[in-house]
Specification:
alpha/beta; Rossmann fold; 5 helices; 5 strands; globular
Length: about 140
């Protein structure tokens, strides 16, 4: 299956406190034709999510300040982000943590170290929801 099978390429937000991980994701995803933005923490991610519409968010679980689950919980307070396809990326894969993420709306859980083929497959499967460069909705929730 190609990216064309799922519409055009995706707009992706990578949220990770590790510059190494953000760079790896950006390099691989951009090479596949996706538009990629980065945030180093949950607060930065929330600001970007107010400005842009993303198809996919790759979110690290363990970050300073606001962890990945707290970020997802904040996102789900607004119906604007209901369709955001969230993949949690973490070394933590315990059943309780994964179930908590799923209950918050996390669509997939990818263990670190990250197999990029798994990320690429999940990104291709995510529905398209953002037009390239589309401004964020100004409607209220």
């Amino acid at each position: 299956m190609s990216d064309e099978d799922f519409g055009s390429n995706k707009r992706i937000l990578v949220v990770d406190d590790s510059i190494v991980m953000r760079t790896q994701f950006r390099t691989e995803l951009a090479a596949a034709g996706h538009e990629v933005d980065e945030a180093q923490d949950g607060a930065s991610a929330l600001r970007l999510l107010e400005e842009h519409v993303y198809d996919v968010a790759l979110v690290d679980l363990n970050m300073p300040g606001m962890n990945g689950l707290q970020l997802v919980q904040e996102l789900r307070k607004s119906s604007r982000h209901d369709d955001l396809f969230i993949l949690m990326v973490s070394t933590e894969t315990g059943a309780d943590t994964v179930l908590q993420g799923r209950s918050l709306g996390v669509k997939g859980w990818v263990p670190k170290p990250v197999p990029m083929a798994q990320i690429m497959s999940a990104v291709r499967a995510a529905p398209q929801r953002a037009a390239a460069g589309a401004p964020a909705s100004t409607g209220t929730d």
